[in-house]
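Sample intake sheet
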Amino acid sequence: MTPFHLAFPVRDLDETRTFYGEVLGCAIGRSSTTWVDFDLFGHQMSAHLRPQAAPAASDGKVDGIVVPIPHFGAVLLMDDWQRLATRLEARDDIDWLERPMVRFKGEPGEQATLFIRDPSGNALEFKGFRSLEQVFAH
């Protein structure tokens, strides 16, 4: 698998470093006074300073549940997803949009999912699958 790259807006680089580095456990890469790179489960995420950026709206729907559009995150194997979910649930400073749950239970593509917001209002989804072969199952 090759890494994915995403550049996204943030309102404050210090709070972004704390959230992605300490809360999510991302390694911090190169940076400047206007951006910082993170390793989000092997993917290059570049946070760019944009103080006026607006949070995502909750206007999408998946499996009957409203989800924010746009959002980004990572697809993980179930053990890694469970470790992340446990890490986040142990904190009292997480802005939860959707607590850990299983979607499409008993169907092709069954997945665990959770949604959170970072301090800039960016919506993140983390999905967990028992097998990566299920990611595109239908």
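Comment: The first strand starts at residue 5 and ends at 10. The mean pLDDT is 92.
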